[in-house]
Design goal:
Blueprint lengths: L1 E7 L2 E6 L9 E10 L5 H5 L13 E9 L11 E4 L8 E5 L3 E3 L11 H14 L6 E5 L3 H11 L5 E5 L6 H6 L4 E3 L18 E6 L4 H10 E9 L13 H5 L2 E4 L5 H16 L11 E3 L4 H10 L7 E3 L2
Parallel strand pairs: 8-9, 8-11, 9-10, 11-12, 12-13, 14-15
Antiparallel strand pairs: 1-2, 3-4, 3-6, 3-15, 4-5, 5-7
Helix pairs in contact: 2-3, 2-7
Length: 312
Amino acid sequence: MLVSQVVGPGRSEVVEVEDLVPGARQVLLEVLACGVCTSDRTAWGEHDVAGAPTRLGHEVVGRVSGVGVEAARWRIGDVVTGLGGDGFATAAVFDADSLAPIPTGIAPELALGEPLAVLEEAISRAGIRPGDRVAIVGLGFMGLGLVQLAALRLPSLLVGIDPRPGNDALALRLGAHEVHRPDALPTEFTTGGLRELRFDVVIEAAGVTSALSTSSTIVRPYGTVCVVGYHHSGTAPMDMELWYKGVTTVNGFSPHRPRTMRAMRDGLGMIADRTFDYTPLITHRFGLREVDAAFELMREHPASFVKSVIVP
């Protein structure tokens, strides 16, 4: 089998290794697609050349090619997605209880289970009610996915906020009513008055401290801020204005695997009934030997880019 591994800062190589063998409660997958996640960018871009190679890729869809003796509920040929790693490869091993079947007739790259589970978990915990005023701060891949899911909750106003204009039109197509730059927000979104027009629910999906600051400014007193962005750098301080406003702060991430798998299955159900669609979000596809090009594209972030997928 082949695997791509990071061997230096921003430099990967594809090597041939021994074929994997699933354990008793594991399943062997032929990798069909693996998403390129922002959370892996630091590990790729800052790898210590003196350290051991790093294998990345955790947004996997694959076809079952081997089954452990205690994983018989899966059959050879099943197409599945799940929670696991080392997905930038031609094969990967997953725990049998960390897999879910993808809907029939859906292309593998349009059924990435791990990010879908994060999106569904976050939106379910944000507590959006029909008629709420909702803002999504950050209109990258995750933010645009959240726009789709938030629109299903029938908010009276759904606003996208991002410093870059590249995804404005797509956000509007996916259900946002308005899109704004964070430094040019309407006054009614940032200050109270006789008529409260700040947001009932703000979902932060950018993973940078400035987005947290914007979120704390635009949420109304006793509203909710749901943090979905992956804050892997910086101090991400809490704005004490949230405390004075009586705001509920929600962690959009779940560390509990069974709960995450339940969210994944719910999300895959929405793909099956066409209420959620990755199609407009997967903008680029690369081969296994092009992992570095995929990360470079993420770093450059042209206007046409939302999400890349590696297709071995």
